[in-house]
Amino acid sequence: MKRFFENWTGLIQPWLWNIIIIIAAILLGLVIKTIIKLLLRLSKKTEEYSLYRSILLHIGQPMNHLIPLLVINIMLPLVDLGHEYYNIISQCFYIGLIISFSITLIRSIRVFEDYVYHTYDLNKPDNFKERKIRTQLKFIRKVAIGLIVFITIAVILLSFDNVRRIGAGLLTGVGISSILVGLAAQKSLSNLLAGFQIAFTQPIRIDDVLLVEGEWGKVEDITFTYVVLKIWDERRLILPINYFIEKPFQNWSRISTEIIGTVFLYLDYSVPIEALRVEFSRLLALSDLWDGRKNTVQITNSTDKAVEIRFLLSASNSSNAFDLRCYVRENLIKFIKQNYPDSLPINRVSIEKNNSLINSNNATT
């Protein structure tokens, strides 16, 4: 095969031969890429999620330059060039191939993410395992992308002879400078370490319901340095990630999403408790928000003017619990107003006549 190509180079001008080789390499790469894409499209499934569709979506574009560059690097020894020109061109195509390959690796992480997101869907009543895996996946993806970029830059730099020669001398300087940078960036490093700690010990996870700084919301995003909490009214609360290591907060979905809610009413002493229990049970039975676990009515306190009645109810998650509390509170007040209006809180005033004072006043007149 080598002798065959040497005979051809003797019959064709070198510059023409080089153009033919490069064009042939590009065309061959494009043909291989097209065949692979066609095979993936033919294998594509019709359901909502498809691994083949995910590969085409994320890796299809990098393949446009990865495969042609790979074929060119394989066929480059056939090009008739001088030693100096060959080294320069070879180096350029080699660097292009490294960059293209790293981009393909990064995009392949997205393919893996799609698979995990499909397998562990958050749209479930009890999504504890799904939230745990997605939280860890976010950190793993960011670390993996950082490592790929770092290794890519290192490989490109080490491909130059001059960089390799001065590399040993730089190691000492890098070691000293890293100590200085580490001292100057202690806060950032503590946030980074806190991010890893949260990813694997998981005091919080994606989609967890938290009560932080008096605000109720869901964890929308977790980065290496901060956490985004989506408040119920669409605001975003941004907190440094080490906040969740150093300060107390409430996690309403740490073990499960199930929660117990309360409704307090302050009524007169004459209120019929048994009638309230019956009405409360009826309201819960009519609501799809109630999960059937808790149904309790208790007098929890009393003052000189009213009694405090606590209604305990349960729901599958905090959002349902809030809506159920509002529903129960509204309908109980309506029930009391219609059936026992005298049981609403009232202030009693007792007026007694002073007969002796009245009689003395009459005698004087």
Q: Your description of this structure?
A:
This protein is α+β, with helices and mostly antiparallel strands and 365 residues long. Among the domains are: 2-119, no CATH class; 259-343, 2-Layer Sandwich (Alpha-Beta Plaits), CATH 3.30.70.100. Helix content is 61%, strand content 15%. It is built from eleven helices and eight strands. The strands form two sheets. The protein has a five-stranded antiparallel sheet with strand order 4-3-2-1-5. Strands 6-8-7 form a three-stranded antiparallel sheet, with helices on one face. Helix 2 (14-42) packs antiparallel against helix 3 and helix 3 packs antiparallel against helix 4. The longest helix is centred in the N-terminal third of the chain and has 37 residues, at 83-119. The chain is elongated, with a radius of gyration of 37 Å. The termini are far apart.
Structural class: alpha+beta
Strand content: 15-25%
* Morphology call: elongated
Radius of gyration of CA atoms, rounded to a whole number: 37 Å
Mean pLDDT: 77
Order of helices and strands: HHHHHHHEEEEHEEHEEHH
Measured as a percent range, the helix fraction is 55-70%
Amino- and carboxy-terminal Cα gap: 143 Å
Number of helices: 11
Spatial strand arrangement across the major sheet: 4-3-2-1-5
Sheet having the most strands: 5 strands, antiparallel
Strands, total number: 8
The low-pLDDT segments are 360-365
